[in-house]
Write a structure and sequence with these properties.
The protein is an all-alpha fold. The protein has a single domain, classed as Growth Hormone, Chain: A, CATH 1.20.1250.
Length: 442
């Protein structure tokens, strides 16, 4: 049952990843059909992260009241409708509005799914389970690149985007058949049902151990406000958690990952590669590396731990971005290949560290009653900077070129090294209730 639920919840990561990646291959053909300016190209691309801010706010005000499961059902429905409208859009403005709608669904589910996974997972494998969300993001990106490559020859961007309808139907059916999280049920006076679900999720646990889990959840929520004030996030012990969860997402975005995901063909063109098919096949390679190294991350996050892995990730991405920057400055025959090595290495380090860890930290660090609002703050930081990168990248590329643009990303990766060393906590193997006790007691 645990495996089935993890697969279903992680599927929402696939929806997220698919839409992130598919626009990179579809944009060249959309620009041909609709005569899109550089600014409008940024608007179409950044509409999803902008809509995701609204989706995050929606999830924040509903997940505690109505539960994690209903929010995921709504997210799947919104993504399904948005994907259909995108594939049928008759001008760039309808396409932009449809992508805003998709963003709402992605924002709501991207905040709720890691929370759902963290709340159903046993402590000893929670890192691996929550990282499954990031794995499915990378699988979604890879599938989108394959869709782009499959329809790239005909230039049919509508089918490229329309493929996203199918995983959204699977996710919708799967979450309809899944239970609510035991923690939410316990918090809402339904401990008996929560006890039954925990027993099914952790069949190796004795009745006494299940009762102990329920008692820990009840104890952690006993003295907290039903709807905590926003000022709670400024309290000693909570403020460092809040700032870390937000800043690590900001640095994740400013590393340049979504510039690569959204605009991979454009980047390869600027690096010296030619031909649409070559660009699309190169992006498929990015998708494969992304998936493979995210699988590795699911092991390392429990064996190496969160803190060391985050530091390693920023060191690797900084070195990789520096290689891309230097390679594109050289203007020699080997430039395209050095740039490709740098980009692939960047993807590898990102996938093994910067990709899954912010989602995992966000789901782990906040106390139970603060979790929806805390995760909303972190998610809004993520989506707002995702929006800024997606909106400004075409203009940056046109104004300061690929060298200057990637030099900026390199700088923020270096900042990430310093920040991770100074602030990253370790949460490996600790129950959510123990993490909460440490946070409140700090």
């Amino acid at each position: 049952m645990l495996i089935a639920i993890v697969i279903v919840a992680a599927l929402f990561g696939m929806l997220f990843g698919f839409d992130q990646g598919v626009i990179s291959g579809a944009l060249p053909f959309i620009k041909q059909d609709f005569t899109v300016s550089a600014f409008m190209e940024g608007v179409i691309t950044s509409a999803v992260p902008l809509g995701a801010v609204a989706g995050t706010l929606l999830a924040m005000v509903t997940t505690d009241r109505y539960g994690r499961k209903p929010m995921l059902i709504l997210g799947a429905l919104i993504f399904l409708v948005g994907s259909l409208i995108s594939a049928l859009a008759f001008n760039q403005y309808v396409l932009t509005l449809a992508r805003l709608l998709i963003g709402v669904g992605i924002g709501a589910s991207a905040m709720t799914a890691p929370m759902f996974l963290a709340e159903v997972a046993p402590a000893r494998i929670r890192g691996t389970i929550v990282s499954a969300f990031q794995l499915m993001i990378t699988i979604g990106i890879m599938v989108s690149y394959m869709s782009d490559a499959a329809f790239g020859g005909s230039g049919d961007w509508r089918w490229m985007i329309g493929v996203g309808v199918f995983p959204s139907i699977v996710a919708l059916i799967g979450i309809l058949l899944s239970p609510e999280t035991p923690r939410w049920l316990t918090l809402n006076s339904n401990a008996d049902k929560a006890r039954d679900i925990i027993a099914k999720l952790q069949p190796e646990s004795s009745p006494a151990e299940v009762d102990e889990i329920i008692a820990e959840i009840q104890e952690s929520a006993k003295d907290e406000e039903a709807t905590p004030a926003w000022s709670t996030f400024l309290k000693r012990g909570i403020l460092p958690v809040t700032s870390f969860a937000m800043i690590v997402f900001v640095l994740q975005q400013l590393s340049g990952i979504n510039a690569i995901i959204y605009y991979a063909p454009e980047i390869f063109k600027n690096a010296g590669f030619s031909g649409t098919t070559t660009d699309l096949l190169a992006t498929v390679g990015i998708g494969v590396v992304n998936v493979a190294l995210t699988v590795v991350a699911m092991y390392l996050v429990e064996s190496m731990g969160r803190r060391k892995l985050l530091i390693l990730g920023f060191i690797g991405t900084a070195a990789s971005m520096a290689l891309v920057t230097v390679a594109t400055m050289m203007d020699v025959a080997a430039t395209p290949y050095l740039a490709m090595i740098g980009i692939f290495t960047f993807i590898a380090f990102f996938a093994v560290s910067l990709g899954p860890l912010p989602w995992l930290y966000m789901a782990e660090l906040f106390p139970l009653r603060l979790r929806p609002r805390g995760m909303a703050l972190a998610s809004i930081a993520n989506w707002f900077f995702n929006f800024l990168v997606a909106l400004t990248f075409p203009e940056l590329l046109a104004s300061i070129g690929i060298v200057g643009t990637f030099a900026i990303f390199t700088f923020f990766c270096v900042v990430g090294i310093v920040y991770a060393i100074a602030a990253a906590p370790e949460t490996k193997g600790i129950t959510l209730e123990e993490i909460e006790a440490r946070t409140i007691g700090a």
